[in-house]
Amino acid sequence: MPVRGKSGTALTPLELEIMNVLWETETGSGNVQAVQEKLQGRDLAYTTVQTMLNVLHRKGKVKRKLQDRAYVYSPVLSRQNAIAQALGDMLDRFFGGSADSLVLSLVEARHLTPEKLARIQKSLEDKGPEAKRKEMKDGNV
Hints:
Layout: H1 13-24, E1 30-31, H2 32-38, H3 46-58, E2 62-67, E3 70-75, H4 79-95, H5 99-108, H6 114-126, H7 128-138
Antiparallel strand pairs: 1-3, 2-3
């Protein structure tokens, strides 16, 4: 089974929530207070958010810049790379690195219907995944 290095460490649920706040801000960055305020439905102490941002900084997932008297954090890790790392980790841990096993599991659990499989197959035949992603990114779909 493949083993991922420290840079491929999956985000914890709270780290992911914090990264989502940073990815979704207009400026793409925020200080501890701004992140704390945007964590919806969570009553987390300022120091908890600060600690988590420092952990993300140590892991290399965010960078920080001192502005006035507070650090402003911005993501180094893109959402797409976080998704790729999480999927890779899940594939390794649950399916021995086999994407085929993952797809079969989704079919067996009825999360992937024959109709959805047909759309995926058509997309692959028509353009391939890279061209489809580029079109979606450019807004041409």
